[in-house]
Structures are given as C-alpha cells and as structure tokens.
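Need the bound structure for nicotinamide-adenine-dinucleotide, inputs here:
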Amino acid sequence: MIDLGLNGKRAVISGAGYIPGRAGHGRQSALRLAEAGAAVACIDIDPERGEAIAAEITAAGGKAFPIVADMTDRGQVDKALDHATDLLGGIDVCVDIIGRALWERSVDSTDDSWVWTIENNLTHVYYLYRAAAQRMIEQGTGGSMVAIASVDGTAAARFHAAYGAAKAGVISLTKTFADELGRHGIRVNAVAPGNVGSGNEDQPEGVYAVDAINPLAAPRGRDIGNAVLFLSSDLAARITGHTLVVDGGATIRSIWDITDENVSRFRRDH
Ligand SMILES: NC(=O)c1ccc[n+]([C@@H]2O[C@H](COP(=O)([O-])OP(=O)(O)OC[C@H]3O[C@@H](n4cnc5c(N)ncnc54)[C@H](O)[C@@H]3O)[C@@H](O)[C@H]2O)c1
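Answer from helper R.:
Posting the output first, comments after.
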C-alpha cells in the first residue's frame, strides 16, 4: 500500500460543490481527498451545493463539513478559514477551484468584464493563498496549497483574454507563494486543465486520438481530482511552484502538419 500521507489531514476546498453540466473539479477533488483519509471543509457560495458534497463524503464513510461563503470577498474568505480551522482543528491542505471565462472578442470587451474576470479567477486565489498561509505558518506543521489554473494561462486565450491573463496570474502567484513559503514547509502548486468541458465522464474508455485537439483523449473531472490529490499528497513532497498540465496532450501538439499519411514527404535518406 502506498501511503499518500493524507490520513487524518485537514483539507479546505474553495468551490467544492457540483453544478450539473460543469466539470465538477471541486466535487472530484473533495471526494479524492476524503477517500485518502482527509477531513474536508467544503466551502461554497451555494448552501445546497456545499451540503450535497459534504453529505456525499459522509455517506461514503468520510468526514466533511459544509461552509457557506463568497470566496471573492476577502472578509468572507478570512471568516470561512477561521470557521474551517475551528471545525477541523487546523488546515493542512487548501484547494482553490473557483473560476469562469467570459467569451468575447478582445476589441469588444468591456472594463466590467475585465474586472469581473480578474476578481473571479485571480484575486480570490491571492486572498485564499494568503489566508491559508497565515494559518499554516501559525500552526507550524507545513502544508500544501493547490489552485486550478488553465492551459489558457500558458498560451493565447483567444476570445477570453482576461481569463487567460488571470490564469497566467494564478501560475505566477503559485510560484511566488511557493518561493516565500518553502521555508515553512508549505508547498504551493497549480493544476492546469485542458478542455474538461462538462466533465467528459461519458467518454468511452480506451479510445484515443478521437479529435484534432487531444493526442490521447480529453481529460475528465476525475483526472483533475487525481492531479489535485497527487499535489496535495506526500508523493509530491519535493514539488512546489509547479503547474501540472492535465490536458490529454493538447498543448504538446506540434505546429507542423505532419501526419501518418504525409510523413513520407519529409523523410530524408542519411
Ligand atoms: N471545464 C473546463 O474545461 C476547464 C478548463 C480549464 C480550467 N477550468 C477551471 O476549472 C474551474 C471550475 O471548475 P468547475 O467548472 O468544476 O467549477 P464550477 O464553476 O462548477 O464551480 C464549482 C463550485 O464553486 C462554487 N462557487 C462559484 N463561485 C464561488 C464563490 N465566489 N465563492 C464560493 N463558491 C463559489 C459554485 O457554487 C460551485 O458549486 C475554474 O477555475 C475553471 O477556470 C475548467
């Protein structure tokens, strides 16, 4: 048996609820951490969604508590973490799921959509990293933080420029907090999903290269949950400041249009 080092650990997930038709990263991450033995504070702006994931974990034999908060509001972030600390007895693992893109041509975009996108994808990560780090430093027992970024933070984000800039900001914040917090034994990492869409849970198993984007297959919600679990666990004990891309290989694609059919044109005899 491999020990993930999460048994009895205390985890906080910001945006732990599940909205049908969405990717379900919060739910999948919460379930995986609970399965590994962590008690989970399930923070959500929607009381029913927070209660639903906490109930699902409890029904499966795990330990979980719902907490209601709008995590884009700094005061509510601090209160939610105080509440989580009281319920769990401390915080060892902290995960930020929240984010959403607005789609529009950059030339038509408005100041309001820029501000909304930065607040809903970047600013809350800063609030949460800072609040969790303060509590972890006070505890003095190290910890792990993970945020959901996106492959759109690593390349151009056509028609969702503010989202790409915000996710690039998450990747940068992750490196800086990792750098500053390493001396306290606190690791900080991010996961950059590719196109998980609405979860991809209905994809057939064992079928690869089915579209032009993914050489493997598009990632599922559970693949993101597994990446969050790995980075939160002792298996990642010497990994910090890293952004783990989980995209079925989408962003490794060569820019050259070489295919099985036309490769002979590029062959040279040596
Ligand atoms: N779906 C994809 O293909 C894809 C690709 C790359 C990155 N992402 C990233 O995944 C994350 C979203 O994952 P999802 O679609 O599973 O989540 P989601 O949008 O379904 O939200 C998860 C939970 O967060 C809660 N929430 C939203 N705003 C909140 C707030 N202000 N305070 C507290 N709770 C709040 C919601 O109520 C919901 O229960 C985002 O960071 C997004 O950028 C998604």
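Comments: The longest helix spans residues 111-139. The chain has a mean pLDDT of 96.
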